[in-house]
Please model this.
Amino acid sequence: MKPREEIGIAIPISAVERETAISKDTLRMWERRYGFPGPTRDQFGDRIYPHAQVEKLRLIRRLMDKGYRPGKIIPQPYHALLELLSGSQLLHDNFNQSDLITDLLRLISEHRVSELRSALQSQVQNLGLRRFILEVAAPMTRAVGDAWFRGELAIFEEHLFTEVMQSMLRKWTGEARSTEQRAPRILLTTFPNEQHALGLLMVEVLMAMEGAECISFGIQMPIADIVSAVAAHQADIVALSFSQAYPRTRSSEGIMELRRALQPHIEIWVGGGGVARIKRLPEKVMEMNDLANIPAEIARWRQKSDFSR
Amino acid sequence: MKPREEIGIAIPISAVERETAISKDTLRMWERRYGFPGPTRDQFGDRIYPHAQVEKLRLIRRLMDKGYRPGKIIPQPYHALLELLSGSQLLHDNFNQSDLITDLLRLISEHRVSELRSALQSQVQNLGLRRFILEVAAPMTRAVGDAWFRGELAIFEEHLFTEVMQSMLRKWTGEARSTEQRAPRILLTTFPNEQHALGLLMVEVLMAMEGAECISFGIQMPIADIVSAVAAHQADIVALSFSQAYPRTRSSEGIMELRRALQPHIEIWVGGGGVARIKRLPEKVMEMNDLANIPAEIARWRQKSDFSR
DNA sequence: ACGTCCGGTCTGTCCAACACAAATATGAAG
DNA sequence: CTTCATATTTGTGTTGGACAGACCGGACGT
Model:
C-alpha cells in the first residue's frame, strides 16, 4: 500500500502501468535489458518515471500494436519513433479521412458539444442508421482514438465523444422486434479490463437491425460468467469486442479458454482492432474483420440453422 | 510469455487475477501470510488454482468490498463466509422493499429480459420519468446490488440489469433544451476506478429535466482532466457520483484535491452510497444525500446566481 | 521462385523472499 | 463519548533469476 504525494512531473510505476498498459514486470525487464526506461527514484527508492519517458513509452506501445518488436524500437530516440509512426499510419489514415470526419473532430476539440450532437443527428437522418454506423460512427471512433494518441485531443475530449455517441446509439438498442425467421440469440460482451463500449454498441445495433435477438451485458465480463450466461439465456452466439489496446496474449488465451468451456454448437464471433493482430485463432471461432459483414454472417447462421433442423 | 495447456479444472494465476480482480502480487502474499489460497503446481512449477479456491476468492472479494478485512475472513471456511454474506444486510432491506421491486427482481433472476424491459417501460408511462427514477430506478439499483452481494443474483445478471436500465435512461439524455432561465452548466463524471454508471445517469436525467445543461463525461475521469474540462466548458458545477464500493479514503482525498484545484466559485456536488460514510467533507462541497433534492438545489443555485449578477 | 522445416534469439511472465509506508484497529487519557 | 498515540495489518514496491513460447532467418527440397 504505497500511494503517496504526487511528484508533480514524475509518476510511480503503477501509474505508468495504468497509462501505458505495459505491466510492471515488463517495465522492469525493459529497464534491465535495454536500459530504457531509466526512471529516477523517490525518497523511498521507488521508481518514478518522468513525463518524457512516459510519452516515449506510449509511442512504443502504439508501435508495438502495429507489429513492431520491442528490441527494434526501444533503443531509438523519440523523434525517430515519431517518424516511424507517421510513416506507417498517418498517410494512410488522413488519406481516407473524409472532410466530414475532420469537421466533426474539430467540433470535439472546440468543445461545441450541442453542435456535435446535432451534426451527428442530421447524419443519421441523411444516411440512415446502417450507413451512419458504417460510414460515420465507426471511422470516427477510430479517428478520435488516433487523434488522442497524436496529442490532438485530450483524454477527456475522447471521453466526451464516447458519451455523446453512446447516447445516440443506445436509442436503437433493446427494443422489441418480431421477425418471421428464426432469430439467433446473440450474447454481447467484452473480457475484463476492456474499457471500450462503443464497438460493442455499434455491433449490437447492426445485429438488431438484422432481426437478431441481442442480449448485451456491457463490458468486462469474466469468462466463467459468460459461460453461465450462455446457459441461462440459451444463446446461440457469443459476440466479443476487443479494442486496439487489448493485450494480444490475453485475448487469444481468453478466447481459447472460452471455446473450450462452451459447447461446440455455440458460435463465437470476435471483432475489433484487438483481434486483427492475432495470428492463430482457435478452430470454430469467427473473426469479424468488418462491421459490414454482419448481415451476411447472420444470414449464414440462419441457413445453417435451418439445415440442421 | 507462458501460455500453456489448461489443466481442465484448475486455472493459472493470470486467469485468477482476471476473474477475481485480485492482483498476482496480492495472491502470492496471501498464500504466504494466511496459507490461502493453496494452489497446486503444474509441470513447470507454476501455480494453478482449483475451481473451489477461485470461488472462495470471489466470496472474499465481495466481502472486502463491504468493508471486511482480509485477515478476518480469509482463514474462515467457505460456509462461514456465505453466512456472513447473507446475514449482513438482509433484514433492513427486505423490510422496506416494495412488491414492485420484488417482482422486477424475479424477472431478472428468471432471465425474462424482454418482459423486464416492457415492465419498466410501462412504469415510466404510469409514473412519469421523474417519479420512475426516484421510486423505481434508484431503489432497484440498490436492490440489485444487494441481491448480488447476498448471492441471489449472479454478477452477469446485475450486468444485464445495468444495461437494460442504461438503455432506458439514455433515451432522455443529451437532447437539446432551451430555457428562459440561466441554466447552470453541470459537468458530470466519476473518479478513476469507479465502475458504476447508473447513478450518474439518473442524476443527469433529473438535472436535465430541471433545465440544467448537462455535460456527462462518463465514468473514470482523472482529477487533472476534470479541472481542464471545467475550464474548457466553463462549467458552473461539478457533480460526482460514488458507489458503495468506492474506498472512503480515495473519495475524500480526491474531493479535497479537486476542491483545491478548482476556483472557489465552481460548486462541487457529490452523491451516492460512497459519500454517505465520509465524516468530514471539505468546506464548499455539497453533499446530495437524496436524488429528490436535485430540483431544490438547482433552484438555490439559480437564486444565488441571479443575486450575484 | 516458393513453401516448409529447424535452430537460435527475443521477450514476457512467472518465481522467491523480503522491505516498508499507509491504512486500520486498539487502547489510554482527557 | 471524543481525541490522540501506539501497535498491527496489508498492499505494493524492490532485486534477481528462470524459462516457455513466439518470432526470425537460413537451409533445404520441390
